[in-house]
Amino acid sequence: MARVYANPEQYTAWTGQPAPAGVERLLARASQDIDTALLTAVYDTDSTGTPTDPDIVATLADATCAQVEYQQATGDDGTGAAGQWDSVSIGPVSMSGRRARPQAAGDLDLAPRAGRVLAAAGLLPGVIW
User: Fold this and answer.
1) Residue pair 5/53 in contact by the 8 Å Cβ criterion
2) Element (DSSP H or E) covering residue 24
3) Fewest beta carbons less than 10 Å away: which of 45, 68, 74, 91?
4) How many other β-carbons are positioned within 10 Å of the β-carbon of residue 107?
């Protein structure tokens, strides 16, 4: 079972906005994104891989909420497909120049704010503390 680092109430508190429809699914997918960004991070966990330090728990919740907030702002539905083209038409199908995507661990489109939250906690790859 995949870990989910934030709940709808935390998302609402983070953004100050009501949670969007399907927020549980969005938070689950964003949690997977955060796991990808933390591929080489070291922190204490329990037997299920869930962090045990309350500060790390809070950091991962904030980063997850920031990831969903970013995806909502960019029109992404959690699949990573949004924002990949400069222009798209439906009929008779027209796609234009593919946009360069931000690079992060695992070719992840990590929200800038999520990256800052993780970096401040010393959790991003390459951070030694």
Assistant:
1) no
2) helix 23-37
3) 91
4) 10
